[in-house]
Write a structure and sequence with these properties.
With 222 residues, the protein is of the alpha+beta class. 40% of the residues lie in helices and 21% in strands. The strands form three sheets. Strands 4, 5, 6, 7 and 8 form a five-stranded antiparallel sheet that branches. It has a two-stranded antiparallel ribbon with strand order 1-2. Strands 3-9 form a two-stranded antiparallel ribbon. A hairpin with a 5-residue loop joins strand 6 and strand 7. Helix 2 packs antiparallel against helix 7. The protein is elongated, with a radius of gyration of 29 Å.
Length: 222
């Protein structure tokens, strides 16, 4: 009986090596295309759910090995904001932390930060363009929030004057002395918990991508 090494000639060995290389090349290309396609599908889910392009762009795709080709490449699709994505995938319930009793939900009347370092609250510095915290609102208007609790939830108002060009301004003596008058404006609603809706589905797109990879390889080499 002949050994396999005696049957496989150098010429045949080269052919087998070339075929293996072609399969690895095809497999790596297909994996890159499907990983990129899955990333785009998940990004479209986020924007379609109304959560904006910024969160959508946190989805990234990577294929390993990063360089060259492989018979067994690995596609990795992930989000740079996994906790937010997970909350909208599972429908998580958000509750106060650090002993807090209420979640303070800002209304449209709460100003956005113009600069990240404008105010520093107990929540530390926060990003430009996000809504001010209750502490920052009190600093901004130089007044205290008036909280009314009723029926298991609360409302937080602050006395301000309407701005001449929209929005609200601090109720200074000079402004109140004119035609404008200070009035309570709703800034926050207080709730004990918020149930996040299930807006995202991750498993089904991943399964479809895996099925496409197997089908494309079968079509290419069957």
């Amino acid at each position: 009986m002949k050994m396999l090494s005696e049957v496989v000639t150098p010429s045949l060995r080269d052919q087998l090596h070339e075929i293996e290389g072609d399969i690895a090349q095809d497999m790596t290309i297909i994996m890159r295309e499907e990983a990129s396609g899955l990333k785009e599908e998940l990004r479209q889910q986020v924007t379609g759910a109304g959560m904006g392009a910024r969160l959508a762009r946190t989805w990234q795709a990577q294929v390993y090995p990063k360089g060259g080709r492989s018979l067994n490449p690995a596609g990795y699709v992930y989000s740079k904001a996994p906790q937010i994505i997970q909350a909208f995938t599972d429908g998580a319930t958000i509750r106060p932390v650090n002993g807090g009793k209420w979640l303070w939900i800002p209304t449209g009347n709460v100003p956005a930060r113009r600069r990240a370092g404008n105010y520093v609250s107990s929540m530390r510095r926060r990003a430009n363009g996000t809504k001010m915290t209750p502490e920052e609102v009190e600093l901004h208007f130089n007044a205290e929030l008036d909280v009314v609790i009723e029926g298991g939830k609360g409302l937080a108002f602050i006395d301000v004057v309407a701005g001449l060009r929209g929005g609200y301004r601090q109720a200074t003596a000079g402004r109140v002395a004119g035609r404008r008058k200070a009035e309570p404006v709703l800034m926050f609603t207080l709730v004990k918990a918020v149930k996040m809706p299930r807006l995202l589905e991750l498993d089904a797109p991943a399964r479809r991508a895996a099925a496409r990879i197997a089908r494309r390889m079968a079509d290419r080499w069957s």
